[in-house]
Amino acid sequence: MMDRAQAYGDGLFETMRVSGGRVLHPEEHYFRLLAGMRILRMPIPEHWSPQGWLADLGLDRLDVQRDYRLRLQVSRRGTLGYAPPLDGSISWEVEAQPLDHVGYPQPVGRPELGLFQEHRKASGLLGNVKSSNALLYVLAAGFAREQRVDEVLILNAENQVLEASKSNVLFVNGAELWTPPLDSGALRGVMREVVLGLAPQLGLRVREELFSPFALQQAQEVWLTNSIHGVAAVRQFRKTTYASSVAEQMQVLVQSRSEVAQFQ
């Protein structure tokens, strides 16, 4: 039977990095997952406490000597028809894929960045959710492949940067670290949250503000962050090339935090 996630995108997912048999940054993943489920008005299982949800991920079946990309897919159960079913039940499944190396990449990745302008992303709370309806990101990633770049920027209706096809976007300008605010419709990225929390340790002031693609041409460094690669430092966007030394320092902090971060 076709499920509602397949039929309507009625679900959400959480992508996590697992290392040494444990989820990295579990608290951030947990609270993002629950926030997304509440926005979608999905019931939260009673046993999904900060520790209880981890038991449903099957971590004990993974090789502790390897790192994995782990995807938790949560879907609303029910028959076809847009209206959610009255019983409000959900289902979930987990898929694990081995990664090539242990720990976040060091030195950091150096992707080339492009610009996706065929479609725009709307503002609002739904933009913060990792929804099963990911057509915008599918098209953006396909465009990046056609243009032979590693990533592309996604814009809003006013041609301001929100994120990239599989990453949040930040840039370093002097002692400031800029990134779009969540109320603009940018994805609530776990690694974005981790990096913003660590920024003061590198003497960086966080500035959550929208900016145009042209602002990136004045930046010293442009970062792409997600839960799998941590921090990547853009090598080139159009004719502008960037440094990566601050990103390298941030990746060291991210790795150190991942080795000690656990629920209190």
Textual characterization of the structure:
This protein is of the alpha+beta class. The chain folds into 2 domains: 4-98, D-amino Acid Aminotransferase, Chain A, domain 1 (2-Layer Sandwich), CATH 3.30.470.10; 112-260, D-amino Acid Aminotransferase, Chain A, domain 2. The chain is 22% helix and 27% strand. It has 5 helices and 14 strands. It has helices spanning 4-8, 26-39, 135-147, 190-198, 245-260; strands at residues 11-19, 22-23, 67-76, 90-98, 112-116, 151-155, 161-164, 168-173, 176-179, 205-208, 221-226, 230-233, 236-237, 240-241. The strands form 3 sheets. It has a 5-stranded mixed sheet with strand order 7-6-5-13-14, covered by helices on one side. Strand 9 (176-179), helix 4 (190-198) and strand 10 (205-208) form a beta-alpha-beta unit. The radius of gyration is 18 Å and the shape is globular. The N and C termini lie far apart (41 Å). The mean pLDDT is 94.
CATH topology of the largest domain: D-amino Acid Aminotransferase, Chain A, domain 2
Q: Which spans have pLDDT < 50 for at least 5 consecutive residues?
A: none
**Tally of contiguous helical segments:** 5
> Number of folding domains?
2
The dominant shape is: globular
Provide the spatial order of strands within the biggest beta sheet: 7-6-5-13-14
Number of strands: 14
Largest sheet: 5 strands, mixed
Helix content: 10-25%
